[in-house]
Structures are given as C-alpha cells and as structure tokens.
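Workshop exercise sheet. Pairs work together: one partner reads the sequence aloud, the other fills in the structure field after running the prediction. Swap roles for the next sheet.
Pair: D.N. / O.F.
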Amino acid sequence: MTTRRHMLKGSVAAGAAATLPLFSSTASFAQDAPKALQIFVPAAPGGGWDSTARAMEFAMKTDGIVKDFKFEHAPGAGGAVGLPKFLSTKKGQPDALMIGGMVMVGALIANKSPVSMKDLTPVARLTGEAEVLVVPAASPLKTIKDWADAFKADPGKMSVAGGSAGGTDHILIGMIARALGKEPKAVSYVAFAGGGPATAAILGNQVACGVSGWGEFAEHIKAGKMRALAISSDKRLAGFDVPTLKESGIDVELFNWRGVFGAPGITPPQQQALVGVIEKMVQGPSWKAELAKRDWTSIPLFGADYGKYLDAEITRITGILKDLGLAT
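Structure field:
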C-alpha cells in the first residue's frame, strides 16, 4: 500500500542517482568510520530534530554500525542559536554530526545570521514530510476552492496559524499566496512557538485555518476535529480524501526535509566516512523500521549532491522570504 513515505518520489527523482555511495572502497570505510558519534541537536529535546537523532541512535546501535553516542542540545530560533556553536566548537572533529533541515534554512535567513549552512560539511538528507492546510471542523470552508476564493477576496481576514515566522509553514502559505496572485506580505500569519499552541488555536476557532506537517495534525484530522483541505505533496496521501495543492489548481509543492551535516574543516575522506555510516544506516532494517513506525518519508541524498541541493534550497527560500518581507 502506498503511504506518505512514497509521496516524494516525483519531487526527488533528480536526486535519486545521488543515493549511490560516494566512495567504492569498503576497506577504506571500515578503516575511517568513526567508532562513536557526537550528535548535535540545535533544538530542544522532544522535537522533530531530536526525534530524528534518537531514531538514528537506535538504528545504528541495533544494526551494530556505531555503538557509542553523545548528545548535545542548543535550542533557539530554529537553529540560528545552535549553528554558530556547532561551527565554533566542533571544527575539524570527524565524529560530529548536526541535525538540521528546511526550518533552519528559513530561520537563518529570517534572523540575518552571520553564519550559513554552507559553512557545514554536507553528509546526508534523510527524511521529508508534506505540509497540510486545515480548518476547524466547524468552519464554513468545506473545500480548498472555498478557502482559495475567500483568501483571494480578502487575504488579511484569513488568519493562518503556523510555526515560527520564516519557518516551513510560513513559507508554504507565502507560496500559496503568490500562486493565487496575492502578495505574500498580505497574509495574516499568526506564528506560534510550536505545534501544540498552533493546534490549540485551530481547535479553539481562534484562527481561520492552520498549516503544519501532516503528522502534527493527523490525529485531529482522523478524529474529525479538523478538516484537511489540501496537502503540499506531489501525490495524494493514501487512505485520505485530501487533494494536493497542484491538482486543486494551486501550483505549489513543498516538503519539510531533515538531514545531517558534518563539522567544518574535516577532510574529504572523513566526510566520506560519515556518508558511509549514514548510508549503511539508511540501508539497514532498523532505520527502515523506524521510518515505518514514525511514518517518515525516506529521501536520501548524499555528500556533494546534498550540498548542491542545499545551495538551491537557500536560493529558493531566500526568494520566498523576500516576498514575505522577512529577508532583504
């Protein structure tokens, strides 16, 4: 049965070839592979990045890839607090990995950070999640067409609950506004510190609608407390009668991706060793089981190809945030 883990197939086809190993010598990998890993999470325990880190630890320990792990958290501003710390304290350390993703790209741009994700050593993109646009169950807006018509009539009256300003949720609603011929700055976006407060605002009918990752709202959609109007993936989610934005005439597709990065200043062989560790994890049974359990979509992309993807993402998201008035 097709699940959300397959929804990214079309959007990442161009990167499929990059899932091949960056190096051919298994002997070299065995020699250079770190025996322990420092996992740096630029967010508080319990969130999506921390969950990714813990799933990596479980998978690698279970499959005998790496046995020893040390964790460090540095939360704040979507990674804008943690990234400078990682760059300064882990430079040249071949056993250090930082969790990051699309949220960090937007946060660094919005916060005018003096450092960039380009300062990191790209290792691997791991997972992705589609976003969903929802309304409270009592909303008179029954379809995405109803929502789009109301939004075009008066964007300022369509209050939208989501995560931090400049984050994935904000970026998506800005893209939707642009696709509907409206200025992204006109969106009445209500930023919340996390999914919990945003969910409470939607369930309490304090906002007209909300945007988040599918996993954040899935329970409430299934319970009939929220109505899902559209998802941002390239394909529908099996088992749910929810159209994609594109099939609804809104030319927008977006996925919230997560990945891992090495420290600055490590050598190419050290980078390849980290890629090898992650590659082995991705191909192993325990990681695949974690993906199934957590309903994550696997979108692996490694090394230099991941770096090229990151460069393109920074360019694309900078343009969107300029439209939202959050970048110069």
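Discussion prompt: Residues 1-30 have pLDDT under 50 and may be disordered. What would you look at next?
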